[in-house]
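Mods, move this if it's the wrong board.
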Amino acid sequence: MPEKLAVSEVVTKKLLAKVEAGDADARRQLKRGLVRAEGPEVEALTSPSRRLEGVLVKRMSPDPTNSALFEAHAERLRADLAGPAPSPLERLLVERIVVCWLLANQLDLADACAGNRSLVLAEYEGKRADRAHRRFLAAVKTLAEVRRLAAPSLQVNIAERQVNVGTLSAPAPTAHTIRPEEPE
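Not the wrong board. Structure tokens:
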């Protein structure tokens, strides 16, 4: 397995200048380095979701102070939803949730700030906001479903009655059946 690198070891001003100038070798070197790099900086540099977040935050407010507040809230939301040890699928879904949450809020904010506009435009923007909200809820539901499926389940049979119990704290799905002892 190749040695892991810090982003600062991979992304240098000199290398970026070569990539910007169209140097194909420098581009390959940057790509290989970023694949081997680790840390939250790598995610911030390489994730399309993070780039989209930046665009949405700027649309919500060009003011640097408000943008920083929105970005901080998105980071807290990401950390809260991801939890201490998310799987790769959970990380992807959390990224999707954060982007959908920002988009839904950006559209709601634009709607609230809109002045007089035609009924057709208002209806179009309302439908667009509704679709963004549905995508947000679908992403949240999918994350909940993934976590539910990953949780172990316990089935208990007591006196011909079946009780299914599920928990959310284990990393891999398992199933156990406990049967009552036979009467003597």
